[in-house]
TrEMBL record:
<dbReference type="Pfam" id="PF00528">
    <property type="entry name" value="BPD_transp_1"/>
</dbReference>
<feature type="transmembrane region" description="Helical">
    <location>
        <begin position="153"/>
        <end position="175"/>
    </location>
</feature>
<keyword id="KW-1003">Cell membrane</keyword>
<feature type="transmembrane region" description="Helical">
    <location>
        <begin position="81"/>
        <end position="101"/>
    </location>
</feature>
<feature type="transmembrane region" description="Helical">
    <location>
        <begin position="113"/>
        <end position="133"/>
    </location>
</feature>
<feature type="transmembrane region" description="Helical">
    <location>
        <begin position="267"/>
        <end position="287"/>
    </location>
</feature>
<keyword id="KW-0812">Transmembrane</keyword>
<keyword id="KW-0472">Membrane</keyword>
<dbReference type="InterPro" id="IPR000515">
    <property type="entry name" value="MetI-like"/>
</dbReference>
<keyword id="KW-1133">Transmembrane helix</keyword>
<dbReference type="InterPro" id="IPR051393">
    <property type="entry name" value="ABC_transporter_permease"/>
</dbReference>
<feature type="transmembrane region" description="Helical">
    <location>
        <begin position="12"/>
        <end position="36"/>
    </location>
</feature>
<feature type="transmembrane region" description="Helical">
    <location>
        <begin position="216"/>
        <end position="236"/>
    </location>
</feature>
<protein>
    <submittedName>
        <fullName>Sugar ABC transporter permease</fullName>
    </submittedName>
</protein>
<feature type="domain" description="ABC transmembrane type-1">
    <location>
        <begin position="75"/>
        <end position="288"/>
    </location>
</feature>
<keyword id="KW-0813">Transport</keyword>
<comment type="similarity">
    <text>Belongs to the binding-protein-dependent transport system permease family.</text>
</comment>
Length: 297
């Protein structure tokens, strides 16, 4: 029995080992090294890296400093994107899943594939498609507006249209993932619940509120948290479509972090900004979880 137990543990360890090694090599070690760098005056092209303690963090929280302006401006733009995109990603993802479940089974798979396909393409391909859509002079959307005798819109150069463009692009690109997760969750809700509610006289809205939402609550929380994390890490859409413009109005925090590291060549301060960004994401995710399960506990 002891030998069998040891063999079982060894087998389990061997299965987990590749993931553990990958986790350490590509996640844990870079995080620890990033924290180490954030405590140094770490210039990209310099061999000397002076330990400065919390000086990089102090500069970020010092009003009037360059890092303070970079961090707060980038963070505010990122928060705006999160507020604009996450509710739509969750609500429309669920709505698409509900509509998909109403379709005949023989064509349900076709529509599932159709909506999920954009999620599989790269950011550069996404940008090429939507640059053609949003082009002020020859874009599809302005061409459609011209046929309706409506003045063209500067989708990528004027406020608030730049935010509309970024959110539309994000919805088209990523909502398929949320839809698939919601679809699987809806399929797990027992049909007996709906039949019993119908017999009791509950209409469609009451069945949705009383049965569907409580049943998919864990999946809903998962979607909200993952969508929030992804939106906080937004980079490809503003970088490829608006370049952070007009001005710095859509220059998100991750763009400022990379500019500080590779244009300013100050990797230490860039790492400090990235660590603070990670802490903010962790806090926001924890608050979301607490709101979702705090009352129940």
């Amino acid at each position: 029995m002891v030998k069998s137990s040891l063999q079982s543990r060894l087998t389990s360890t061997l299965f987990v080992l590749p993931y553990l090694l990958s986790f350490c090599a590509f996640l844990l070690i870079p995080i620890l090294y990033g924290i180490y760098i954030s405590f140094h005056n770490f210039e990209l092209l310099s061999d000397s890296h002076k330990f400065v303690g919390f000086d990089n963090y102090v500069k970020i929280f010092t009003p009037g400093s360059y890092l303070f302006e970079q961090f707060t401006t980038g963070l505010w733009n990122t928060v705006q994107f999160v507020l604009y995109s996450v509710p739509l990603l969750v609500v429309l993802g669920l709505a698409l899943a509900l509509l998909l479940n109403q379709l005949p089974k023989r064509i349900r798979g076709l529509f599932r594939t159709f909506y999920f396909m954009p999620y599989a393409i790269s950011g550069s391909v996404m940008a090429v498609i939507w640059l053609m859509m949003f082009d002020t002079n020859a874009g599809f959307l302005n061409g459609l507006l011209a046929k309706l005798h409506i003045d063209p819109v500067a989708w990528l150069t004027d406020l608030p249209w730049v935010w509309v463009s970024l959110v539309l692009t994000t919805l088209w690109w990523t909502i398929g993932f949320n839809m698939i997760i919601f679809t699987n969750a809806l399929n797990e809700v027992p049909e007996d619940y709906y039949e019993a509610a119908s017999i009791d006289g509950a209409n469609a809205w009451k069945r949705f509120v009383s049965i569907t939402l409580p049943s998919i609550r864990p999946v809903m929380l998962f979607i909200i948290i993952t969508s929030t994390i992804a939106s906080f890490n937004v980079y490809a859409q503003p970088f490829l479509l608006t370049r952070g413009g007009p001005g710095d109005s859509t220059k998100v925090l991750l763009m400022n972090v990379l500019d500080e590291a590779f244009k300013g060549k100050q990797v230490g301060s860039a790492s400090a900004m990235a660590i603070l960004m990670a802490l903010i994401i962790i806090i926001v995710s924890a608050v979301q979880y607490k709101i979702a399960y705090g009352r129940k506990e």
